Amino acid sequence: MTDTDTLAPMLADLAAEHDSLDAVVAALDADAWDTATPAEGWAVRHQISHLTYFDEQAALAAVDPTAFEQNRDVLFADPASFDTSGTNAALDPTALLESWRAGRQTLLDAFTGRDPSERLPWYGPPMSARSFLTARLMESWAHGTDIAGSVGATLPATDRLRHIAHLGVVTRRWSFSVRGLEAPDGEVRVELDPPSGGVPWTWGPADAPDRVTASALDFCLVVTQRRHIDDSDIVATPGPAAEWMAVAQAFAGGATLPRGGR
């Protein structure tokens, strides 16, 4: 297997995550697309419009980085005037669904055969092509979780969560820096029970005193800020591990707060 071939499994997992959410929204009637979701002011249609916009921008970053950077700079210049949830949100549900499907296929095509280590511009630091796809999978799953919960559906937890969990782990220092904080020194051991059962997924030294243990599902819900740590099965040792979980943020953009909490 060559280096460029190694993106194929990631692309397959991303397509499967798209299909999982597609199965939820394709079954909705027109009125259900206006169902409110946990994101303030966003209905189902805004969530899908948001995904469509960033899938298209990710594809643009791969095929025309200069054009992407121009779009990004316009957004950065006046972020309050730019609503990424409204670019296609006014479309009727059938047209919006087709727009999302077309955008995500453009994304998959743009990354097919690409070098996994190629660095591409984004809204934060440049990322490798592999990290790009991981981030898109995370976004699809996180926004899909919002949608599914709002319309009484369920996105099945699969071992594709490993991609999101890995992103959650490697963004530990980012979670602090985006808040203007210094990340605590040292390593944190993370042990997660995968949805399929079996051997836990692990990161960090086995003998690290600072530890996080959880189900993979709850860890992913917390690092994508879909669930507060107090409402999860996460066990974090006092100190660096617990401090991280309190601010965990596996996505780019400004600092945001987790939902809920007791």
Please, could you describe this protein's structure?
With 262 residues, the protein is of the alpha+beta class. The protein has 2 domains: 147 residues, Four Helix Bundle (Hemerythrin (Met), subunit A) (Up-down Bundle), CATH 1.20.120; 87 residues, 2-Layer Sandwich (Nonspecific Lipid-transfer Protein, Chain A), CATH 3.30.1050. 48% of the residues lie in helices and 7% in strands. It has 9 helices and 6 strands. The strands form 2 sheets. Strands 4-3-5-6 form a 4-stranded mixed β-sheet. Strand 3 and strand 4 form a beta hairpin. Helix 2 crosses helix 3 and helix 5 crosses helix 6. The chain is globular, with a radius of gyration of 18 Å. The model has no long low-confidence stretch (mean pLDDT 93).
